[in-house]
Amino acid sequence: MKYFGGCDVGSTYTKAVIMDENGKVVANTTIKSKINAALSAEAAMSDVVSQVPELKGDVKNLTYLVGTGYGRNKVATADENISEISCHAMGVHITDPSVKAIIDIGGQDIKGIAIDTDGTVKNFAMNDKCAAGTGRFFEAMARSFEMSLSDFSKLSLKAKNVIPISAQCTVFAESEVISLVGEGKPMDEIAAGIEMSVAKRCFVMAKKAGATDSITLSGGCAKNDGLKQAIEQVLKIKVIDLPVDPQLMGALGAAEYARQKGLAQA
Questions:
Q1: Are residues 106 and 186 in the same domain?
Q2: CA distance 8 to 83
Q3: Measuring CA to CA, which residue among 112, 108, 137 is closest to residue 126?
């Protein structure tokens, strides 16, 4: 049996997937990214390879490995590097071929991606100029609430009203939130305002990518239930839940590209 790998080195988390020649995922891992992208890639690959006995703990026993993400050039043993936009599209495509549009909310950027019938990228839009609305933004907001990210993501679901957050910048938004909390405003309603402000940013990306009737979320922020609800309200289209961890989509797509390319060489 041949095995193929995908390593998605993100700014916040590094993910890795190993797939067999039939396209079955046999191992995956998600680790907090280290200060050095090369170390992140090495740690993730070491972990994921250890889960497949046939690989004998050696990354070099993979038939083909694709690196992706912002640190894709630091995956030392990669045979090739492919952009995370292409890999997220392919990852979602092989998970649910019916999905034609993605909002990928990463640690430092937001992307809107339209998927073609073969899993390639049809069109995309990207906001990488500002961290507002990204994973880093949500971490800052959760910190302001003195909550875990998981608890914060559910807080807005209880809100009966929405307190708008006017600041677009992460730093100013954090300051605004602290002031609102200090004034005794309901925390769930502040959280709802935060989720809604991000959903409006996602709206722009989704429309640029051509989303019409449905969309899915990829990246770690896809696990944010409050954001999902806000996006459905703002876009007025259904957000499709993926049956696989949405944070793994980039690594999964990279592994599928590795499988295709590795088998083509055989």
A1: yes
A2: 10
A3: 112
| Confidence (pTM) | 0.92
CATH code of the domain in which 180 resides: 3.30.420.40
177 lies in some domain: yes
Residue 195 CA to residue 164 CA, distance in Å, equals: 10
Gap between the Cα atoms of 83 and 128, Å rounded: 14
Q: What are phi and psi of 186, to 5 degrees?
A: -60, 125
Q: Model confidence over 173-187: pLDDT tens digits?
A: 888 988 998 899 999
Let me know whether 260 and 233 are in one domain.
no
84 and 164 inside one domain: no
Separation between Cα atoms, residue 214 and residue 194, nearest integer Å: 23
CA distance 33 to 239: 28
Q: Tell me the per-residue pLDDT of 92-116, one tens digit each, with 9 for 90 and over.
A: 999 999 999 999 988 778 899 999 9
Statement to judge: residues 181 and 228 lie in one domain? yes
Closest CA to 117 of 141, 92, 153: 92
Give CA–CA dist 79/99, Å, rounded.
Answer: 29
Radius of gyration from C-alpha coordinates of the chain: 19
Cβ atoms 106, 8 nearer than 8 A: no
Range(s) of the domain holding residue 261: 3-89+247-265
